[in-house]
Amino acid sequence: MKYFFKRIRSQMELYLFCISFFLFYQFVDCAQPYFPPQILFFANGATLYAIDEVNQRAYKSDSYSVKQSETGYALKKFPYATPDSPQSKYYVQLLQGFPNIGCIYGTYWKYGGSTFNAFPSHWNNGTTFEIKTFIDFKYPMIQSTNSSVYEDYWYSNQTCHPEGPNDVPCEEIYFRKNTDIPVRSTQVLETPWETRQFTTEYLVISVGKPDDKYFNSIPKDWATTCRDVMLGISYVPQSTKVDLNENVKIQVWLPTPPHRINGSDVVSIQWKANECSECLTWTPKELSFNQKDFQVRQILTITRVKKGSTINLIPIFNGGGFEQVSTKNYTIVIE
Residue 19 pLDDT more than 70? Predict the structure, then answer.
């Protein structure tokens, strides 16, 4: 009797093992694949990406022509940053563009973010950033049972209606057979003019940690020579009409703190009139902000003392990393 129960137990264990083995491989076979976490590839033949989710760094290079190119970097704790600065602690995205962009960057923290994005949009969320898989599927994906002998085909469980007679899956992706190496993907997107299905072709160069050479090309002096896109001035109002012998009180503050340069975190701002300098007076002649009071609204009082045409008051910056800031967006307009 003991031998009988022992034999039954062994058979049950074998049965459970077989069931578990079968379910495991069924699950693995049906699990939706994604881009490898470390990969180097071309998208549509022209854009080179080096993505390293493990070490949270990404590189992008676009060569539109011999006269136009862009290179982007995204890393946490960006190299060559000023010690103890936000850029040394948080994610930074830096973009070099020839000939129009120059060198610009944005820092993802509570007072930061960026006015540009060179990488997939689902990596950033305003003031936060994280390097993730290259594609963010919006719908559950289904593996086709009619894939070719060379590729695995996945499609979304939702269909969309682009220009044309037929509905198509809203998202599709093709992989090399039994791998997570992408070949191409499609996505239906709405533009202001039409709804289209866009295709992206992938040429994978390597899977695994991208070569450090792509990140060694970061300019070592970027912290002082590139422009922080979040540095600027806030005004209320920025444009207004002022009659003769009347004045306007303008609130002035900074949306993000100035940088600490050579031990000083102070930025001083003066203004100059683009014409008819004798038509206006303003007090004080200079406002200063630092990393503690940058959000405190200060008052600039502008008085019209002579009739004249519309006048632009152009800011003059000194310190705080503002030397690279363009003044054209921070001009006060007095009619």
Answer: no
CA angle 220, 223, 224 (to 5 degrees): 100
pTM of the model: 0.82
DSSP 173-208: EEEETTSS-EEEEEEEEE-SS-EEEEEEEEEEEEES
Count CB neighbours of 246 within 10 A.
Answer: 10
> How much is the average pLDDT of 258-277?
93
Task: Give CA–CA dist 271/285, Å, rounded.
Answer: 7
Report the relative pairing of strands 286-289 and 234-236 from DSSP bridges. Answer: unpaired
Q: Beta-carbon neighbour count of residue 106 at 10 Å?
A: 25
Question: What is the secondary structure of 233-284 as a DSSP string?
Answer: -EEESSEE---TT-EEEEEEE-SSPPPPBTTB--EEEEEEESS-TTSEEEES
pLDDT of residue 10: 52
With b meaning 16 or more CB within 10 Å and e meaning fewer, what string describes 161-197?
Answer: ebeeeeebbbbbbbbeeeebbbbbbbbbeeeeeeeeb
Query: Quick one: how many helices (H) and strands (E) in the chain?
Result: 3, 23
How many residues belong to the chain?
A: 335
Q: Confidence band (pLDDT; 50, 70, 90) for 31?
A: low
Q: Tell me, what amino acid is at 191?
A: T
Q: What is the pLDDT of residue 271?
A: 97
For residues 165 and 178, what is the distance between their CA atoms, to the nearest angstrom? Answer: 33
How many other CB atoms are found less than 10 A from the CB of residue 327?
16
Residues in CB range of 176: below 8 A, 6 or more apart = 150, 151, 152, 183
β-bridge pairing 311-318 and 91-98: unpaired
C-alpha to C-alpha distances, 196 to 48, 71, 172, nearest whole angstrom: 24, 28, 14
The CB-side HSE value for 163 (13 A sphere, CA atoms) comes to: 8
Q: Region 210-238: what's the mean pLDDT? A: 95
